[in-house]
Amino acid sequence: MTTSYMRTAPDATHFVSSQDGTKISYLTMGSGPAVIVIPGVLSTASDYTAFARALAEHFTVHIIERRGRGESGPQGADYSIRKECEDVFALQQKTGASFLVGHSFGGFVALEAARHNPSFTKLAVYEPGVSIDGSIPMDWIPGSQKKLAEKKYLDAFVEFTLRCGPERVRRTPRWLMKLMIPLILSPHELKQRLSLLHESIREHQETARLDGSYENYREITASVLLMYGGKSDLPWLHLALERLATVISQSETQEFPRLDHFGIDKKAPREVAEAVCAYFLK
């Protein structure tokens, strides 16, 4: 294992081979102890550059490009959360990172990775996507798969949004949501999210497969910062945080009162980065 404190070129892209030979790309910036950042569903590494740049004032930050995205290889026929963890372990072996940050599904991956790899000593997860007793909806998947098969990508995204979005969004009529989405999202954001719907479905299926397995996180030896936005109204969130705080022996919970689910990547990446930095350095 190697640890590098060398300052890298801004936003340098590198590659590592995972255990099954899949090429995994990652974006690197900064100098100092190594941190791996794991993006969430429908996101790519570049979505976290503002967060990473703020964190890179004290750390060497590596944002992993998860399978099925960008220059990384495909999820593969045998995709599972284990494959996601193997990708993280490959990057950890190359960089010597002992710190890990994850957002949403990426937070779920981070918890799974830390459970199987005690060399991670500190984690910071922002609204980790942990399902408890069916708390994260999965009933949208068949409808979304049907729309994808018909190449009705926006309709497939509407199915996802109406079931997995914030409570206020779920009350929106389907026809209105279809009109609103292209107005709310930039063309780039919309294109990216539509292109990752297939990957998102497989990731949610893994979340469903491991539903209720949060007790396994008693095995985590790292200290964990559990973060959430005070304006998040995702119905599964508070139950997940409550259960995680109960089973993880070394954990702290931090609220960001004015932020929502996208606080770490879109709303206030520097604010979240400063909290993560303080936690990792203490």
UniProtKB/TrEMBL annotation:
Could you tell me which species this protein originates from? Dictyobacter aurantiacus
Q: Name the InterPro entries for this protein.
A: AB_hydrolase_1, AB_hydrolase_fold, AB_hydrolase_sf
The lineage is:
Bacteria, Bacillati, Chloroflexota, Ktedonobacteria, Ktedonobacterales
Q: Which Gene3D superfamilies match?
A: alpha/beta hydrolase
The protein's GO terms of the molecular function aspect are: hydrolase activity
- State the name under which the record lists this protein: Alpha/beta hydrolase
Identify one Gene Ontology CC term for this UniProt entry.
membrane
- The AB hydrolase-1 domain extends over 35-275
Keywords associated with the record: Hydrolase
Instruction: Tell me any Pfam family this protein matches.
Output: Abhydrolase_6
